[in-house]
Automatic annotation (TrEMBL):
SUPFAM superfamilies: (Trans)glycosidases
Location of the Glycosyl hydrolase family 36 C-terminal domain: 601-680
Gene Ontology MF annotations: alpha-galactosidase activity
Name of one Pfam family that matches: Glyco_hydro_36N
Domain Glycosyl hydrolase family 36 N-terminal: from-to ranges: 23-242
UniProt entry keywords in alphabetical sequence: Glycosidase, Hydrolase
Signal peptide start and end residues: none
Keyword Hydrolase attributed: yes
Designated name of the protein: alpha-galactosidase
Reactions performed catalytically: Hydrolysis of terminal, non-reducing alpha-D-galactose residues in alpha-D-galactosides, including galactose oligosaccharides, galactomannans and galactolipids
GO biological process, one term: carbohydrate catabolic process
EC number from the UniProt entry: 3.2.1.22
């Protein structure tokens, strides 16, 4: 007799089935199944044949595949007892608790005193399933590996897309064919990392951004994950996610995975992307003031670096505010004796040489301009050249003779004394000043991966948030080195990349949108000549790319020409006038036939309006750009489209393109199947097209 359970949302069904007192398997995860359909028939239909070259029955690919049951692939759990002897659990099902939108599976191995639980929850509004697993052991055990509930990899998929990257080049998608054996990604640098965003997409054959089946997963943990996608000798596939292996350095009696967020789409990769965007924004992130519009940021880093001068900063703030900034963020350089990056991390008090009267005069000035004030910390780090290190050399993580990174070491956040110290010093800054925002940086790798460090950071963040609930926090790690749903449960923004090069940013934003919503993705207008690439880019390009996400500025505004200032003011005003819906819009990546065009559509929740951003990241192979097909429209409805930046039509366009002449009204069917003719343009430019249902 087979027991079956199902979880449903509008776009997907997940079925669990089990028999014989064993752990159940996910027998189905995909397009919604009819209500009331016979799940045991589906479980029976999943039974595979047995032939030569295999065992006499197929060991089950359960939610935690067990080595002891002949499973021919990677097990979901690897344990040793405290003396190091391998434990070989044989889990027996204890019970399954099923509610409307949650399932909990409990199992145990009485002989070795082990309990296992798998949790599943489906969110009917966001369409995301959250999965996590935990174990409890009577005696302390060494945990080598614990996977979140294991999912079968789709058979009707040829490849997987995972994410790599680097500093100033985050979110690079890698496509790998499924093949015999294991594709493994493991982040072993103690943070989710530029190199290892913990996400995976499994496109069905032929899936594009806008059509076809796709399965997607992301793991909510900031300490480094392990993903393995394995094809077994019999052709079955499994996907496992968990903390990077062996990062529980001490024996444990309880351990849990982080939440694994997963979703299925019948509407191409965009169906997964928009589910994740909603879920991260509305379920994972907690907003101090959800109704408050996202303020336009000004960040002084690329304007002054460590060279802080109150009079200059005031001037800069005044200019930034005139351009439309609403929050001034004082970056690195305000504390200790921090004149460059060789000293002072850990000394979290105001540098009286630079701020003889403290920060208050600058903060008051910023407030008088109507802006709020944010400040930079890098709490988990310490320079050997600091008072704090001299007083507490034992607070650092790893050996004394370790290789440093940016001349700094990592504090041991598992040590409560260290957390108290940081809470007290950051807390004192927040108590004594009207600060509503922290940019929380993390600029080096850990000397060794360590889950306790991540838990320590989470505990510190949670404590600060409880004590200062009105303060928002941004997660930065040399740009996008710590972006994941774990840190986002404690922060409200990510610094996606240190690259303010709008052409690079266009691409990074495009690919990050597979996992992240606009409202939490910071994007700044950088200096005219980009500091990380040397490229000189026009203000329209820089401003509109920043306006795709949570907008800010990060150049010295005193460098702006009159014309640049006008453009920036205009685009910022556009962003403010539209943010109430764009920051809640779904980002749909467009499948631009013209490979030089990176394009997306932001569609309002009410589906009555949208904006298209079509960036020209290169030159087309043919003379004119190819038409851009839109998505997500009602085929029969009529839409009125208009260029938001008609001023930017330049010398490359001398013909009679309809959009260049004014508004056009076209049916959804035409826009989605034939596409929109864009005016010709130079590379490194962008078209912004507003659309409304007519
Ligand atoms: C990191 C961040 C930057 C800036 C510097 C300050 O590199 O990513 O945005 O804050 O640190 O040192």
């Amino acid at each position: 007799m087979t027991d079956c359970w199902r979880l449903d949302s509008f776009n997907q069904t997940l079925v669990l089935a089990g028999s014989g007192g064993r752990l159940p398997c996910v027998t189905y995860w995909g397009a919604p199944l009819p209500k009331g359909c016979d799940l045991s028939a589906i479980a029976a239909a999943e039974a595979r044949d047995v032939t030569g070259g295999m065992l006499d029955a197929n060991p089950s690919l359960s939610i935690c595949p067990e080595a002891e049951r002949g499973f021919p692939g990677q097990p979901g759990l690897s344990l040793r007892d405290a003396s190091g002897r391998v434990l070989r659990p044989r889990l027996r099902l204890l019970d399954v608790e099923a509610e409307e939108s949650t399932l909990t599976v409990r199992a145990g191995d009485a002989q070795i005193g082990l309990r296992y639980a798998a949790h599943f929850a489906i969110d009917p509004q966001t369409h995301v399933l959250t999965l996590w697993a935990e174990i409890e052991s009577e005696a302390p055990v060494i945990l080598d590996w614990l996977a979140a509930p294991v999912l079968p990899g789709p058979q009707l998929s040829d490849e997987m897309i995972d994410v790599s990257g680097r500093w100033i080049g985050e979110f690079q998608l890698q496509r790998m064919p499924w093949s015999a054996g294991i594709r493994m990604r493991e982040a072993r640098t103690g943070r989710s990392g530029h190199e290892h965003f913990p996400g995976l997409i499994l496109p069905g054959r032929g899936a594009t951004n806008t059509a076809g089946a796709a399965w997607a997963l992301q793991y909510g943990w900031s300490g480094g994950h392990r993903m393995l996608a394995e094809e077994l000798p019999d052709g079955r596939r499994q996907v496992q996610f968990g903390h990077a292996s062996g990062t529980e350095l001490e024996p444990v009696t309880h351990a849990a995975t982080a939440p694994l967020l997963v979703t299925f789409s019948r509407a191409g990769l965009n169906g997964c992307a928009t589910a994740f965007q909603r879920h991260i924004r509305d379920r994972v992130v907690t907003w101090p003031a959800p109704e408050r519009p996202r303020p336009v940021h000004y960040n002084c880093w690329e304007a002054v670096y460590f060279d802080h001068d109150v009079a200059e900063l005031k001037q800069i703030a005044t200019r930034a505010s005139a351009l439309g900034a609403e929050r001034f963020v004082l970056d690195d350089g305000w504390f200790g004796r921090r004149d460059d990056d060789t000293s002072s991390l850990g000394d979290w008090w105001v540098d009286a040489r630079k701020y003889p009267e403290g920060l208050t005069p600058l903060i008051d000035h910023v407030h008088d301009l109507g802006m709020s004030f944010g400040i930079w910390f890098e709490p988990e780090m310490i320079n050997a050249e600091s008072e704090t290190f001299r007083a507490h050399p034992d607070w650092t993580l790893g050996p004394m003779d370790q290789i440093e990174g940016r001349q700094q070491r990592v504090l041991d956040l598992a040590n409560p004394e260290v957390r108290d110290y940081l809470f007290d010093h950051i807390g004192a800054m927040l108590d004594d000043h009207a600060i509503d925002y922290i940019k929380w940086d993390h600029n080096r790798l850990l000397p060794h991966p360590d889950a306790a460090q991540t838990r320590g950071v989470y505990a510190l963040l949670d404590r600060l948030r409880a004590a200062f609930p009105e303060v928002e926090i941004e997660s930065c790690a040399s740009g996008g080195g710590r972006i994941d749903a774990g840190i986002l449960a404690r922060t409200q923004r990510v610094w996606l990349s240190d690259s303010n090069d709008a052409v690079e940013r266009l691409r990074i934003q495009h690919d990050a949108a597979l996992f992240l919503p606009a409202a939490i993705t910071g994007s700044h207008v950088g200096p005219r000549q980009c500091h990380t690439s040397g490229r000189v880019l026009s203000m329209p390009m820089r401003a509109w790319v920043a306006a795709q996400r949570h907008m800010g500025f990060e150049m010295d505004p005193r460098e702006l020409s009159e014309e640049e200032a006008q453009v920036l003011t205009r685009v910022t005003a556009w962003w403010k006038a539209n943010r109430d819906w764009t920051m809640r819009a779904e980002i749909h990546r467009l499948d631009s036939i013209d490979t030089s065009v990176i394009a997306e559509m932001q569609i309002a929740e009410a589906s009555d309006r949208f904006v298209v951003f079509a960036g020209r990241a290169g030159t087309s192979a043919q003379i004119l750009p190819r038409p851009l097909a839109l998505t997500g429209l009602e085929p029969d409805a009529l839409y009125r489209l208009e260029l938001a930046n008609g001023q930017d039509i330049g010398p490359a366009s001398r013909g009679d393109v309809a959009l260049a002449r004014g508004a056009v009204e076209l049916p959804g069917a035409y826009l989605m199947s034939q596409g929109l003719q864009l005016p010709a343009a130079f590379p490194d430019t962008i078209w912004v097209i507003e659309g409304r249902r007519a």
